[in-house]
Design a protein that fits this description.
This protein has about 200 residues and is α/β, with parallel strands linked by helices. It is about 55% helix and about 10% strand. It contains nine helices and five strands; from the N terminus they run H-H-E-H-E-H-E-H-E-H-E-H-H-H. It has a five-stranded parallel sheet, with helices on both faces. Helix 6 links the parallel strand 4 and strand 5. Helix 1 packs parallel to helix 7.
Length: about 200
């Protein structure tokens, strides 16, 4: 590997770090607090996104389940073929799209509004159709995707996950979630053994 190519690859750490820090500045604290409030109270939580963002949304749902907030990832394709029956009035649907124009998410937002669910949008485009349909908008900021062509969902994936990690922290604090609860639902692995006093 040529030295310049190695440096370009290693620049990914700095690029992603910069975008995460810029996102921390871009997120409106009042919107973030509202998101934590509704997530802490919702009986059910749904999340949807496409591509890398969809994978990040699966991570978000797992984070919520780990703190006993029932959550399910809804495939955008399955969502509009009946899976939106999961969402009931008072529930929360999180929709993520960097550009805020992902076609597959628009009908999901429309159905959620009809059903009386709260919509949280995670997007960089605060004037986007997705942001306009949402009740709560969490801004993300991507200075540059870290692949050589600035096309892959690399930095945007890291930024989206950072927002989700922050939301989990907020909900944990809001609900008073404790490690003793986590020990019950995470009995296996190194973490489970540590939490349950096993060697």
């Amino acid at each position: 590997m040529e030295k310049k190519d190695l440096q370009t690859a290693m620049d990914a750490f700095a690029i992603e770090s910069e975008s995460i820090l810029e996102t921390a500045k871009a997120v409106d604290p009042e919107q973030f607090e509202k998101a934590v409030e509704v997530l802490a109270k919702a009986e059910r939580i749904g999340a949807a996104g496409c591509g890398h963002t969809g994978i990040a949304c699966q991570h978000f749902c797992h984070l919520m389940c780990c703190i006993e907030r029932p959550a399910r990832f809804l495939s955008p394709a399955e969502a509009v073929h009946g899976a939106l029956g999961f969402i009931q009035p008072g529930d929360v649907m999180l929709l993520a799209s960097r550009g805020g124009k992902t076609d597959e998410l628009m009908p999901i937002a429309d159905v959620c509004r009809k059903k009386g669910a709260t919509i949280i949008a995670v997007t960089e485009n605060l004037a986007s159709p997705l942001a306009e349909k949402a009740d709560i908008v969490l801004a993300m900021k991507v200075t540059k995707e870290c692949d050589p062509y600035n096309c892959q969902g690399t930095t945007s994936f890291a930024v989206t996950c950072a927002i989700f990690d922050a939301l989990q922290t907020g909900v944990m604090l809001k609900t008073g979630f404790r490690n003793e609860q986590f020990a019950v639902i995470h009995p296996h692995g190194a973490v489970g053994k540590r939490l349950n006093g096993q060697k």
